[in-house]
Amino acid sequence: MGIYFHTFDYTEEHIENIFFNPESILLRNVLEHKIKPALVDFPYALMRQLPFRIHEVSRVMREQEHIWWSRTDHLPSLSDLTSYFKDKLRSMEDALNGNVPQVLSFPFKISDYPEGDVWIEAKNDDNNPSKAIAAYFKSDNIVHTSHCVINNDYVEFQKDFQKHTFVFKEGDFYIFSQWRFVGNNFVNFKKSFPANNVMQGSPFSFNEMTDAWRIYDSLQESENQGHIIKRNVDKLFTEQELKKLPLHLKASLFFLSSVLDEKMKRKLQRNPIRFFEDAKNPISKKIGEFYMDAIKHK
């Protein structure tokens, strides 16, 4: 606890050499002093000026599960998680310092797909240290996609579940590190890639990737007897779909994009539904109502 309470002194001493982020500074102080982080199962709600009533606490606990920085991460309790948190810290600092681009695609060789590599796209999602990942590959000249995990040198396609994928730089190599449960064991799969073998951005066009998710969704829908699977990979309308929107909504989206800063503009383009759900500005909220109504009747 003495080391914990001297985090402010640690900050003063290292402020010139570290990225100023409160959580990462605290974690770096803990790790550098070789304190082994071990977690306990402790549900919580970030109330933030809301009344402390039972129904409000319950509602907030449900809602915060959709936000990466407040949701419950499924990690082992009372275990030494030093290696996990070292990867997480490096992934966060490299992203915030610009050492790792917003989107990287990693080539995995798989004999089942002779047409080329299976590319795993690792994307910065709202500065979450754990990257949003998806596998893309071509079969019969059509691009397909899937949620996935990695097992050493191969990719396993499966439905989405909680995993932690960190990307950071070591010299001329990118490190792709994934943590998840396999049975009752919390395991790590790590692979290094020469930087010149990793693609900045995505290997396929936006429309190819959008069509790939449509194919994936249709397969998921049929597997679940017509029940549509909701994902956090919704994207802004493609150009073809944009043409079908009402004129007032086209103008509103154009206006909104022109006044947003780069970070918020990326959030709108990456996941408009989440952008409008989180919107606080009255103008954004009103445009969000138009947008939700348009996709409801699309």
Describe the structure.
- The protein has 298 residues and is of the alpha+beta class.
- It is built from eleven helices and ten strands.
- It is globular and about 60 Å long.
In short:
This protein is 39% helix and 21% strand. The chain is α+β, with helices and mostly antiparallel strands and 298 residues long.
Mean pLDDT: 84
Query: What is the number of strand segments?
Result: 10
- Low-confidence stretches are 226-238
CA gyration radius, whole angstroms? 21 Å
Q: How would you name the oligomeric state of the polypeptide chains in this document?
A: single chain
Q: What separation lies between the terminal Cα atoms?
A: 56 Å
- Domain module count: 3
From the spread of the alpha carbons, the general shape counts as globular
Q: Main β-sheet: number of strands, strand sense, barrel status?
A: 5 strands, antiparallel
Helix tally equals: 11
Q: Work out the strand percent.
A: 15-25%
Which properties best describe this structure?
298 residues, alpha+beta, 3 domains, five-stranded antiparallel sheet, three-stranded antiparallel sheet, 10 strands, 21% strand
